[in-house]
User: Fold these one by one.
Assistant:
Number 1:
Amino acid sequence: MTITVRLRFFASLREKLGEGEALALPAGSTVGAAREALQARGGLHAEALARGRAVRAALNQKMAPESAVLADGDELAFFPPVTGG
């Protein structure tokens, strides 16, 4: 069984990857698995979402760890950390 999540990208990630897209994953996938699936595409996805890069995730508009399990229809957003001064 597969699920489909709606991806959204913000700030510098949006500039590189676009506004967002739909992503099909196996049921039971996590936020980390979604990131890995995007990295596996190579190119800009691999560069922007590489493990060494500081990237945060929000699941249905709430901060989420990479271990959070995704459900069909969820919104998953990736963005760089925000700093202020």
Number 2:
Amino acid sequence: MFIPLSDANALRHLRFQYVTVTLIAINMLVYVFFVSGVFGDALEATAYSFGVVPAVYNDYATLPEEYDLIPAWATLITYQFVHGGFLHLVGNMLFLWVFGDNVEDALGHFRFLVFYLLCGVAAALVHDLVHPTSEVPLVGASGAVSGVIAAYLMLHPRVQVWVLVLWRVPLRLRAVWVLSFWVLLQVGMLFGADEQDNTAWWAHIGGLAAGAVLVLVMRRPGVVLFDRDLPRVSQLRGGRSGQR
């Protein structure tokens, strides 16, 4: 597995990625105050109250009164800001930090926020469709972040990305190789994960699909896909040789 560290992809339309940073901050604050144990261990209550519980969403079960705080439909949004552990949080936030700014740049602040939340909603609905009677709460930003990854892959496949492979080997690779591997891993885990695996792989697939579709219609006018506005290496070499 790998960890994204940074990309060589400057913002073109925005001065700063305010929405991306705000989303990261909200996720971190929710973790610190409700999950980390610093202010009391409320993970179970938070997960059941604000996570998506398919059996509850589909009216196969009801929550205990102390957990039944918001309508089931509202959890399609709130679950995206609750994480079950520190590594779960950090992994999602690293991907959002590295890739979210350029997707926000391509869409604009408000449309990126809508895009992000819609990807998370789509992820939860796909998970719910596959596991309609599950009483395990779905939590985390993985579905929404999957949508960001899909959008970045369609927008900037040729950009160089620094990743840490196996937690210790730094490599600089094109985004198309890094993110395509990640996508294939998610698909493979649909069939390779065992019954004890608590990762919502179908939610990742739902987020990916939503991100790939939404970026087509939500990107700024004039923003091209697949880095078609970048000169190819052969063109750069030709230009340099012509100047000699």
